[in-house]
Amino acid sequence: MTQFLERGWARFGYDPALAAWADAARRAALTRMEDPLHRAEWLQCGGTWFVGVDTLPNDASGAVGDGGPLSGPAYDMARTLYGNLPLHQAQVSVVYPGYPRPRDGESDSAFGYRKRRDAAHVDGLLAVGVTRARILKERHAYILGMPLTDSSADASPLVVWEGSHEIMRAAFDAALADVPHDRWGEVDLTEVYTNARRVVFDRCARVTLPAKVGEATLIHRLALHGVAPWNEEAEAPSEGRMIAYFRPEFLGGGAHWLLAP
């Protein structure tokens, strides 16, 4: 736990119960992904990334298909730190050979950032309106990722900038210090966010976090993270490199997003 709070990430080894959960989740996700409307909405980047928001048909305990509730040491630590928050339907992020290709409507500069910087971002800061202003719309407690397929380490792994969560925390805290908690979602954080990212890229180590089925990765909600490009020599099953992500939100809309560990 101490290492997680210092680094902004933690990787957890194989857990048989989590592996069984991942098997049930993979089967349920593949069935959901066969829906043409679902594929039309979420298959992006020239067919190299299935974004998969709300793809997994799990309940609030994480149970899906014929599997039981979500469990394992990563989830246990997340609940110890942030409480037993109800789980949303998980994102199932699936990456295929050739990632990245330009996303529909993506500018040259944005695509360049995707390739050079792994589309590094902090979750919950959404691009809003014509100006694509970065606004805090989702106050996540943590990011919990669990592979649903086994792939080689260079098959578009998750990446994180170690220690970036505290740089981001300080920047957002300064920007929001005089704003009531219930109005944080009205503040344009674009400039603050962009400047803080530059500091992170200059000061923080970029760490790749490949993982296998039965393992898990816990990322701090304020950590800058992204997805690496697919290496030409990478190997993955025909289903692609699949990871299920839970990002439960804090309840009540208070200051937990900045003040919690």
Descriptive report:
This protein is of the alpha+beta class. The chain contains eight helices and twelve strands. The chain has a seven-stranded antiparallel beta sheet with strand order 1-10-7-12-4-3-2. A three-stranded antiparallel beta sheet has the order 9-8-11, with no helix packed on it. A two-stranded antiparallel sheet has the order 5-6. A hairpin with a 4-residue loop joins strand 2 (about 45) and strand 3. Helix 6 runs antiparallel to helix 7 (about 190-205). The model has no long low-confidence stretch (mean pLDDT about 95).
DSSP strand tally:
12
Strand content bin: 15-25%
Please give the order of strands in the largest beta sheet. 1-10-7-12-4-3-2
Structural class: alpha+beta
Mean pLDDT: 97
The biggest beta sheet, please? 7 strands, antiparallel
**Could you state the order of secondary-structure elements as H and E?**
HEHHEEHEHEEEEHHEEEEH
Oligomerization state: single chain
What spatial form do the alpha-carbon principal axes imply? globular
Q: Helical element count? A: 8
pLDDT < 50 stretches: none
Straight-line distance between termini: 10 Å
- Assign a percent range to the helix content: 25-40%
User: Could you tell me the radius of gyration in angstroms?
Assistant: 18 Å
